[in-house]
Amino acid sequence: MQESVEKLLKSLSLEEKCALLSGADAWSTKAPGDIPQINMSDGPHGVRKARVMMDAADPATCFPTLAALACTWDKSRAEDIGRAIGSEAASMDVDVILAPGVNIKRSPLGGRNFEYFSEDPYLAGQMAARYVDGVQSQGVGASVKHFALNSQETRRMSISADVDERALREIYLPAFETVIREASPWTVMCAYNRLNGVFCSENYRLLTQILREEWGFDGLVVSDWGAVVDRVEGVKAGLDLEMPGPADENTLILINAVRDGRLSEKDMDACAGRVVALALKCAGAPEARPPRNHHMTARRCAAEGMVLAKNDGGLLPLIPAQRVALIGPFGMEPVIGGGGSSTVTPTKVDVPLEEMRVYDPPVFYAKGFRTDGTPDDALFNEALATAAKADVVVVMAGLSFEAQTEGADRDNLSLPAVQNRLVDALCDAHKNVVVIVTAGAPVELPWANKPKAILIAYPAGQSMGGAIADVLYGIKEPSGRLAETWPVRLEDTPCHLEFPGGADAVRYGEGVFVGYRWYDGRKLAPLFPFGHGLSYTTFQFTDINSVQNGNDITIDLKVTNTGSRTGRPVVQVYVAPQGTAYVPRPLQELKGFEKLRLSAGETAHMTFSLDARSFSYYDVNKTEWVAEPGTYEVRLGTSSRSFFYKQKFTIPGTVRRQFTVHSPLSDLLPTQVGDKLRMMLGEAGVDISIPIVASTPLRALPMFSNGRMKPADCDEIIRLANSG
Ligand code: BGC
C-alpha cells in the first residue's frame, strides 16, 4: 500500500497535491488521475446520505441514538448497530460514516448529548470501540468525532475549552484513546473548538503528538465541517483533509506557503499521502451487499436501552386485561432522534399507540398537551377524563425534537410547564400512573415521587414505538442502565457555575470531578444515579472469587436469574482508592462492566480483569499514567450507588513516590524512614506533635532545630526515603 501511495503522490504536481487536501463538495474528495474518490455521510444514528449539506437525506434505518445505545451497557449491541449501519452505508455507496461521537457529557444541558454516549470515559470508550468494529467489519470506515472537548454547542466554533491536564487525560481523552488503540478507526474528525487557546484543527499536540505518536493512529484526520481556521497551521499540525470542499482559496494559500518556504513539502506530502491511502483503502473495500431491513435490529436495541427507573408494586409490565390509557402527543409522534447532522430520514416510524394496540387493542388515547408548550385546557381536561376510564395511565412526557439539537445547548433542565402540570394532575387523580420520559438528556422531574413507575426512554430511532410496546407489555425487558447521572436540579450539576462559559473561553473548573465523580464526592443525592436501572426479574450474585498477581486482579462470579422471566443483568465494576495520597482523586471510577442474557433460573459466569491502568491516574509531571502503590476497594454492583461485593486489595503500583527537600514531615513520617527521622528529630529536640512542625518541609529543619540538624542529614533522609 505504501508503495502505491508514494507512486500516486509522485504522479501529482504540487498544485494537485495541495488541492487534494480539501474535498470536492459537501461529502466527497477530489479524484485527480488514478486516485479514487472518497464518499462520506453522517451517522451516528444511521446513514444520512444527503446531496447538499442539510438537505433531506435518502431513507435509511434510523437507529437508537448513541445516548440510548449507551444505556444498553452492551458491547455486542454497539457492535450490532455499527455493523448494521456499516452494511447500509456500503449498500448506499458510502465509504466513511462520520461517527461515532465520543465527547463527554460534561453538562446535561449539552445540546448534542443525545449524540454522545456518556459522562464516563470508560463506558463511552468501550461502547464506541465496538461500534467502530461493527462499522468497519463491513468495509466502511468510521470517523471518531469530535476530537476533542466539543462538550458544548454554545460558541462551539470559537470557544476555548480551558481544561487542566489531568481532566484532559483522565476524562476527555480516554474514550478517543480506547477507540484508537482497540478499533483502529480509518479516520478521526477534529473538533471546531479550541483547546486551551489553540484550535483543534491546528493543534499539533492533539493531532500529532497525542493521536499519532502516543496512541499510534495511522489513519486520516478530517476537519469538522468548516472547522479550518488557518490551513497552513492545520497541515503542520497534521490535519489532512479539510471539509467541505472545494476550498480553493486554501489550496492557493497552501501552494504559496510551500513555494515561499512557510510550509515544508514534507508536511504537505504527509497529509496528501494519508488522503491517498484512505482513498485506496475505500476503493479496495469489498463489494456492497444488497440493503437489508434493520428495523428489527433497531427495535431490539431500543428496548434494551430503556431504563426502568422506578416500578413500585411491580406496576410494569402491564397485563393485557387491564384497561390502559395512553396520554401525550409523543404516543402518536415519538421523538426518535434530535436535530442537526445526525437526523436520519427513517424508512418507517413505529407509532407507540398502534404498537400498544397490537398487544392490547382497546388502549385509550388522549393528546393531553401541545408539544410547543402552549397551555390548552381542553386537551388537559380530555386527558383527565380519558385517564378516569382506565386501570393504568401511561403518560409520555419529554423533550420535543426542536429542544435537543446540534448548534444550541439548553438553558434549563425543565420539562415544559404544561407537561409537569398534567403529570401532577394525573398522579393526583389516579393511583396507577406510569410516566415514560423521552429525552436525549436528563430533565428535572419535580413530581418523581408521585407516579408508581418511571421509564426513561432516550430517543431510540424509528422502532422506538414498537420497543415501548414490547417493554410495557413485558415482551422485552427494559434492560437499560443510565449512562449518566440524573440530577435532582440543575444547580447540583458539576459545571453549573461554568457552563457554557464566557465569550471566548469556558473553564473546566470541576476538573476530573465530572458526572458521578462529582455527586459522589459532594455526597449529593441524584434523582437517579449513574448505572441505575431496574429489571422485571431478580438476580443473585454468588461464588465471587478473586485472584491477584501484582497489579493484575481477576474477579469471577456466578449470576443467576432467580425470577420467572428472561432478564439481562448488568454488573458494573468500580475501583475506589483508599486514602491514596499523591493527588486528589474521585472516590470511585468505573473500570469494567458486562451484560448477560439469562432465562428464568439460568446461571452464567462473568469475569472481570483489572490491571495497573485500572488503578492509575495521569501524572502531569511524569506525563504518564501511574498506579500509586496502596489499597484500593474493588466494588461490584448494579449501579454506582448499589453494591453486592466490596473487597480491598493492596497493590504494588507502578511508581514509588519521590520525596524532595520540600516534602513536609507529615509525608515522611509514615514511610520507611519514619523511625529514623523520629529519632533524629528527638535528638535535635524538635517536637513533632506540634502541627506547625509536622507541616514543615525538610529543608527548614536546620532552622527549626537551631542548627542541630544539618542540610546533609536532610539529604540523607531523602536518599533513604527514595531508595529501595
Ligand atoms: C457536525 C459533524 C458532522 C458534520 C457534517 C458538523 O456540523 O459537527 O458532527 O459530521 O457537520 O455534517
Describe this structure in words.
It is a single chain. α1 crosses α11 (265-283), α4 packs parallel to α5 and α13 packs parallel to α16 (464-472). The protein contains 22 helices and 24 strands. The chain is of the alpha/beta class and 724 residues long. The chain is globular. It has a six-stranded mixed beta sheet with strand order 9-14-13-12-10-11, with helices on one face. Bound molecules: beta-D-glucopyranose.
Could you list some keywords that capture this structure?
724 residues, alpha/beta, six-stranded mixed β-sheet, 24 strands, globular, binds beta-D-glucopyranose
Provide the structure class: alpha/beta
What helical percentage do the residues reach? 25-40%
Average predicted local confidence, pLDDT: 96
Bound molecules: beta-D-glucopyranose
Low-confidence stretches: none
Largest sheet: 6 strands, mixed
Shape: globular
Distance between the termini: 50 Å
How are strands sequenced across the largest beta sheet?
9-14-13-12-10-11
- Helical stretch count? 22
Q: What is the strand content? A: 15-25%
User: What's the total number of strands?
Assistant: 24
| CA gyration radius, whole angstroms | 28 Å
Summarize it.
With 724 residues, the chain is α/β, with parallel strands linked by helices.
